[in-house]
Amino acid sequence: MRASVLLVGLFALAVAGAGLAVAHGNHATANPQVSANGTIVVEEAFLSTDGYLVLRADDSGEPGRIVGARPLDRGRHRGVTVRADGAFWANTSGDVTLWAVLHTDAAAGDDFDPAADSMLSWFGGPAGQRFPVARGERPVSVVTRGAGALENGTLPVVAATLPESGALVVHTAENGTLGRPLGSRALSAGRHTNVRVPVNTTGLDERAVVAVTVHVDDGDGRFESGNDSIVRVAGEPVASRYERPPDGRDPIRVNTPTPADSGGDSKTVGRTPTTDAPVGTAADGAGPGIRGVALAAVVIAAWLACRKGV
């Protein structure tokens, strides 16, 4: 009995230690966006070891042919970019559906080889996400920090690109649906980094998920919910979700690497070193979590053996 209680306690500690790895396994997420030159913004990519971020065309709901790639170091990255191949982008018009997926680096430092560097999986599916991209004259995208507290009543946006004068607007978000606006920040056309959007949290649950959207101004210079339209791609808003954990912190290391050009039409991409600048870090996402998973596995095995009387 004592052994069982001890194992249960160890199991709880192991799961707590493994939390980072479980929550941040190999995955990539990308949102609807507009691209002018084939540069695609991937909201988040997390790799437990060095690998590749790969763009693939959609093939009946599954990742299809490779249309772009770049190397990524281990860790969590926000707002990383990858360039679509020139030939593919030249033949793209209107809306196109792409996949941003992660691949292994089988040779540990060699050039990207689709035959050897296989696609990673995440809970039985591709370690990535399908999303729509529109080809337009001016790019449109937004990337938040993904999770954390509202600092001094404002939500931090890592980067946003507006096609013309407009605003970043924070909305309530529930079950994939945008709700009422909670605050806005007027911005000029172009790319902006480290923007803070004021948020009115009156009547808002402290754990409520929100989303930041891109709106274009109707010409009066101020945000009006009914008049300043949301930028959409294939009917979906250009938006970035923001979750607020109970403790208000997101304790995963964030890397913002220098973008590496995928080299035009070539599908062979060299692993050139990237410059990673951690932002708001508290722990390396691939460190203690992996050890926690290993500990959890050992404890579970011991617990099962105890139950079977082995």
Q: Strand share of the residues?
A: 35-45%
Task: List segments where confidence is low: pLDDT < 50 over at least 5 consecutive residues.
Answer: 1-23, 253-268, 272-310
What is the terminal separation in angstroms? 15 Å
Rounded to an integer in angstroms, the radius of gyration calculated over CA atoms is 21 Å
Task: Based on Cα principal axes, name the global outline.
Answer: globular
Please indicate the count of domains: 3
In round numbers, the mean pLDDT is 79
* Biggest sheet strand line-up: 2-10-7-4-5
Textual characterization of the structure:
It comes from Halorientalis regularis. There is one protein chain. The chain is an alpha+beta fold and 310 residues long. The protein contains three helices and 20 strands. The protein has helices at residues 2-23, 86-90, 288-308, and strands at 27-29, 33-35, 39-47, 51-59, 62-72, 75-83, 95-104, 121-122, 125-126, 128-135, 141-144, 154-162, 166-174, 177-187, 190-198, 210-216, 232-233, 236-237, 239-242, 254-255. The strands form six sheets. It has a five-stranded mixed beta sheet with strand order 2-10-7-4-5, with no helix packed on it. Strand 4 and strand 5 form a beta hairpin. The two termini are 15 Å apart.
How does the SSE layout of this entry go?
Blueprint: H1 2-23, E1 27-29, E2 33-35, E3 39-47, E4 51-59, E5 62-72, E6 75-83, H2 86-90, E7 95-104, E8 121-122, E9 125-126, E10 128-135, E11 141-144, E12 154-162, E13 166-174, E14 177-187, E15 190-198, E16 210-216, E17 232-233, E18 236-237, E19 239-242, E20 254-255, H3 288-308
Parallel strand pairs: 2-10, 6-20
Antiparallel strand pairs: 1-3, 3-6, 4-5, 4-7, 7-10, 8-9, 11-12, 12-15, 13-14, 13-16, 16-19, 17-18
Helix pairs in contact: 1-3
Biased composition (Basic and acidic residues): 241-252
Protein name: DUF7282 domain-containing protein
Domain DUF7282: 29-115, 152-240
